[in-house]
User: Fold this.
Amino acid sequence: VEAAASVPGASGAAVPRFQLGGYLENWVAAGDVPGPFNVVYYAFLTLDQQPDPWSPRERRWDGAAIYETMTRADISQVMNQTDPTWENPHEWQRVKIQDAIDRCKGSGALFMWSIGGWSDLTKTISDEQIPAFAELAVQLLRFGGDGIDLDWEHVSQYNGTDPGLFQQQRAVIGKTLSALRGAMDAAGMQDKHLSYTTRWNCFWRSSDAARHANAVAFASDGECLDTLSNMTSAGDVRWINLMMYDAAPGSAFEGAQHFTQEHYAAVLQAAEAAGVPKDKVVMGFEPGHQANNGIWEGFDIDFGVIGKMSSEGYGGAFWWAMNEQNSGTNAYTPISTEHAWQGSVGANAHYTADTSAERD
Assistant:
């Protein structure tokens, strides 16, 4: 894996040839940043000033600000450097964020602001709010960082209950990405990047799911197809992150306890069939405890998938999360004879990224 190498984008900005991305949880100690990762995602900024991971609020954005989740404040207020420093009541968090930005810059890693996450508003934004959101995102990038990652996880929630809202939400990510790209370019930020985080099943429709390694129908089936079809240009998004974790046994593929090589291959084939260039596809892993009683597929499958993607020119891999401290194990996770459990999800992510970087 060529972790340190980079290629010039349209604007000459450096993007890793093979990404090793890590989501950085802002509610626990950051740990080693960037460590073996060449892309770091700050998780999270939100549309909701009071995000709720247990019961995300069914509301639209208030349009006033993009919020930082530790301070529950406007991120532009958090990142405002004052003299004296005590005039910024959020200085305690600003210095943590700035430290991560500086460490990434010093090592050549990208720092991406991730906006969304599971706890954020389920109705995201209206079409009319897109320009205001894009303007605030541009303001955010003036404080630093290398780009924006949109991680709006509820855009398929209203499938079957509110057809009009469902259609609007399935289209709004694509429209927003193109508006963001336009606003960033107009502000002279051609070197800043846009990524989009979604799920493994986004490249097929529910009616076609069974043809993809016996996939089970999901409400979010086809999200990428709708996102891409509502963009001005597919080039407006630099890469697409696929969350391939947090799936209960049997809920993603018929009869499957966990993801297998066959399932990863089916996802990559579907992306290719959808016309998505390989270098835009970044696969996501959560090596350990997972939500929804998901079962991690183990080191051997992960290394196999990452090796295949690296050798075939795909965009890379990412992990949730680089500093996740959960140490829970699952008896159904396949045991590797070559790679030992490292102690936590975050430690496993560091180990996998580091080992992948060494395998060139």
About this structure: DSSP finds eight helices and twelve strands in the chain. The mean pLDDT is 95. Helices lie at 75-78, 91-107, 130-141, 163-186, 223-229, 261-273, 299-311, 345-358. Residues 171 and 333 are 37 Å apart (CA to CA).
